[in-house]
Amino acid sequence: MTALVYPITPETFPRAGLIHVPCFSTASYDGKTAILQPKGSTIPFDFAALTPEGFQKATYKQGREVEIRGLAAMETRWLQEVPEVTWRPPYRKPLGARIGGHWYYVTPLCSDLTLETGSHTVVGLFG
Asked: Please, which residues have CB within 8 angstroms of residue 64's CB and are 6 or more apart in sequence?
């Protein structure tokens, strides 16, 4: 994993604690994969603010190979306006992201992205 993102796994995912998550902007998007570039800033994220559903979603292993690998913060408005992506199960159209040389599935940790009001939303990076 690249050092650009906040590295994390299901085993190291805490229930509480404050961290600073790196922010990214979207350099390009082809309808499936967003190419992300670091903004050079971070936002605070408190794990205690996650709902039980959010915690379960973040630590769930989707098969033998697909699990959370890191956290990043993406621009909320951009995430809310991506019409091709489905955020709720069964995830027929997930969002992919490329950061550096790594490709991930992206899932917001909040249960309802439409309720997000901050400029950035913390997302789980799954791979």
From this structure: none
- For 12, residues 6+ apart whose C-beta sits below 8 A from its C-beta are none
Dig out the tokens for 81 from the structure.
């306006």
Contact by Cβ (8 Å): 80, 17: no
Read off the tokens for 51: 């709902």
pTM over 0.85: yes
DSSP string, 4-22: TSEE--TTT--SS-EEEEE
What is the number of residues in the chain? 127
| Alpha-carbon torsion (119, 23, 80, 115), positive or negative | negative
- Locus of tokens 């670091």: 38
> What CA–CA distance (Å, rounded) separates 3 from 86?
28
Q: Rounded to whole angstroms, how far apart are CA atoms 96 and 115?
A: 22
Number of H helices, E strands in the chain: 2, 7
Q: Give 50-83 pLDDT, tens digit per residue.
A: 989 888 888 888 777 889 999 999 999 999 888 7
